[in-house]
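Section handout 9: paired folding examples.
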Amino acid sequence: MTTKRKNIIIAAASAAAVLILGAALLYTVSFGGEAAVSDGQSNISLSSQGNTVNVTSTQISYRIDEDNPTVIMLNNNASTVSGTGAAVEGNTVTISKGGTYTVSGSLDEGQIYVNAGSDDTVVLVLAGVSITNSTDAAVYAENADALCIVLQENTDNVLQSGAAVEITSDVAVSEDASGAALYSRDDLVISGAGSLTVLGYINNGIHTTNDLVIESGNISVTAVNNGIKGKDSVTISGGTFDILSANDGIKSDDTDDTSHGWITITDGSFTIKSLRDGIQAETTLNISGGEFNIESGDESTTAEAVFGSGWVGGSGWDMSNTSAESTKGIKCGGDMTVTGGSFTVNSYDDSIHSNGTITITDGTFTLSSGDDGIHADVSLDISGGSITITKSYEGLEANQITISGGDISITASDDGINANGGPSGFGGMMRGDQSDSTDSDTEMPNLYITGGSIYMDADGDGLDSNGNIYIEGGTVIVDGPTTSANGAIDSGSENGGECIVNGGTVIAVGASGMAEAFSSDSGQCSFMYNTSTFEAGTVITISDSSGNVLFEHTTAKSGSSIVFSCPDLTVGETYTIAVGEDTGEITLESVSTTYGSGGGMMDSGNMHGGGHGGGMGGNGGMGGFPGGGQRQ
């Protein structure tokens, strides 16, 4: 077969193709936003995603012709064809030209084999079909311009390759078998209001080596390899999906052309249980809608199980127990954009991961991860949405992190938010699955917070950057570490970084041994208050001299240090802090004022007002991190 490239115009979403008796209907497959085409190249502006993606694909037009269809009745060794373009030999039905074919009935050890012209579009209307094949695909399109599967309303259709096996990590994939139970070597389109069950017990469930478009349908896939795979691209604009796979759930992995390997999802309902990645795009991934319930790997587990036996001094993490397989919830090799959707992800590795950048403007996320909740090798930008990370090693991680909006809640066994240096950057630490990291993450790490509502319960550092921390707006609440090996705030002063607050409201509670205050170069006042240990459930209240409550917080854990900043603080004014039953007064002697003794790095070496405590006691705990170092 001669492989040809075509130009798909990705225009406004079309209605799903459905079977209407007595009509000849023309459909143009469409997916995305606006398009402009010239010289065989499509420059597609995905307006709903807010970015531009260059692709090389095809406009797929197909006709459902109910005036003159070819009717195929499947029956073991007795199948019949009424019309032209198809022939029967034993239990194989061969389609040799474009057109509409309505198919019903069943075949055991059979196949529908498509070998039409390179410019032909073959439409298979499945109207109650069951085909099994123990050694090959149930439907195999060897050659066509496109294969379009239409699921007739109120029908159930089953395609099976191989014999049923349990889906486990040890299940075998036959390398000499065709790609899937439903397999096409050209563009593949699935639409309609019926149901399709695909059982891929030899290899993949649904697979095309070109572009895959799914507009609608009730689709269930079980596969010993990937559930649904479009090698060049996957576009889904609707449908209901139930996927169980021993490898990735939904995948596009073409590495030969940088304009391929992308996934776009605008709607649909997805239940995915995969032993590897739930959704994986080689290049870009854009999601603007849909409901996603994803379990990947062996579901979330402890950081020790993912990273080995833990911290071993200056050598970093013991990687001996780290799995070489990628078991992330949603993953892409390039840039990821999420502008809407509902996501529930339970993942062994990162719940959401990009080797490039991640941009989130909206959506609802509930994430449970054995590693990071959301990780980008280069940059992470969150401007909206609701993000709840119920379990993670680190909640949010990237070299560059910008949060300008959204409602974020993080539970982390290590850092809550970490602007890191990557494998070869600041801090020089290797941790987790870094095999596919880029070299572009060597820029000075920055954590910017300009808006949003952020809460974190972190056993390590709360706000952590191997470079700079800048807070200019929003509300940030940190219930930080209970031991003095970490701090509720930790900037990379050892790398020349600074910790600046110019706006917003911040309260960071934790142990005092490594507690860090904001810099005196800040544009907004702040104070750090180190005191005797208080317990979980302690109410902290900060009031001005008139008795107006500026902020109140009930601690989730014990601690001995409080860092606070808000726009109402003024140099020279006196404030009352109540920590449970104990109260004290704080007079701001400068922009950044520290009360009580503590260890670690305070205001990058500048301490103000030390020793004041208003009767609160000043035994701030350990004087520093033992062993002369700060864990990043």
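Moving on to protein 2 of 2.
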Amino acid sequence: MPRKKSKAPPLDLRAFIEKFGVQHGKDMVSPTAQPFAWLIDMRRVFMRPEYLAEIVRQFWDKFAPDGPAQIGGMEVAGIPLLTAILQAGHEKGHELNGFMVRKERKTYGLQQLIEGELTGRPIVLVDDMMNSGESLEKARVVLERAGKKISEIFVVVDFQSKKGMIWRKLHDIKINSLFTLEDFDLAVTPPKPVPQQRFEFVWRYAAEPLAPFDVVPKSTPVIVGNSICFGTDAAAFVSLDMDTGKENWSYQAKGAMRKGIWSSAALAKGRLYFGAYNGIVYCLDAHSGAEIWRSAVCDWVGSSPLVVERHGVLVVGTEYEKPRMPGSMVGLSLETGEKLWEFPMRAYQHGSASYWPVDDLAICGSADHSILALNPLTGEKVWEFYTERSIKYPPAIDLERGLAIAASFDGYIYVVKAKTGKLVEKFKTDDLCYSTPLITHGRVFCGSGDRHLYVIDLEKMTLVKKIDCGARVYSSPRLIDGKVAFGNTGGVYREVDPITLEVTGYLQLVDGITNAVAHTADARRIFIPSYVNELYCFERL
């Protein structure tokens, strides 16, 4: 006769998490490169089916008898837990709906932020842990955009951190958990100051159609009186009312490619200058949008123009479908758009220039792997400093110290003499740099694709700190109300004190922020662009 299976002893889930999920040791490194005293890795627990099943059993015990009808999770850690809960609920006979919130929108296929269909039923969100609430905040704003609200959250371990407690109270969300840190004799380190700056949503403008293809810097908004203007991937250059977000006017750059208008407009004497991916540079009346002139200079223009008023010249990069001269820098007449000079290059010139007034130089990064200084009146080369890869955003100019500072695709932040191009120092990051650095308080602030904001002391020429930002930092920092303001590709906007380097403001958006943020002169309002051609207006309270 077959032997009867003996009844399995009850599982001690807490003891198992403590043994296999809680990690101690000096070999663990935090995102700030400082060693962790401990961490909890629930993925090691989820990979043991019997303990995953025990978590699911306790989940359904908490939500018995009927349980929630709609359950969602955040990638990546929440996926195995969400899947197991849905499967167990289905076997219990529950009518369930499941969905997953992505950290970043897919850039292909359906380009979804939410995988699965949402219904009108109450939502329970599940995740492995609750700490500061930052990842859950991303899910909250994504669901809010879809017109949905989180009813409750279920986590295995609730840290009950100060930030997390403030977050749940602020949004009135109940947290259900199986354990807290006290159950494992753990405690969070003394918390950093909670950001005090608060923001109030005013309006959102979404260009049609949304363009979630290229997660890169595009056309940065520029303020014109009580309006704010920028270009879109759909090749429309729009002017919005600053108070309402309604369109004042829209100008279509006909014949532009899929990228439309990535050029950030230059504003001078009531005129807006920008290029488009149809090879045309435009000059519009800034208040009416009426075309003043257009100049067909090449095949594509992704560069942003520099206005040099003392010479009446507009300096901009060009891109050609020519094997012998695929790119160049050109000088155009501000009044007519007539080409005054052209400096040929060996690659598409997406890079843009900044102006060094002391020696009358237009200094640009180039796809020829260099920092290049040209005479803006004649186009003659004055000096060139070679790098290992392209520089696609304008250098920052330090008038006080006579420096040009450029961030390169080779992962270096270069500091050179503006007069001669002589190298002063270079600082290595771990990925490409795609922004213009900010110079303030004797420091340089520059983002990198390695998910950090680099802070450099210009007097000592030393790296002060790498600030972990959780996602790629392509957004060029701006100084707003004395704070360093920037976004990341995870949709997080931050304000950082330039002296203490503490985060003083934090705001989560739905999509990635790759451009610089614009603001009113009094810093009361900020305008945050997303890479999918949306623009958000927030009041700084």
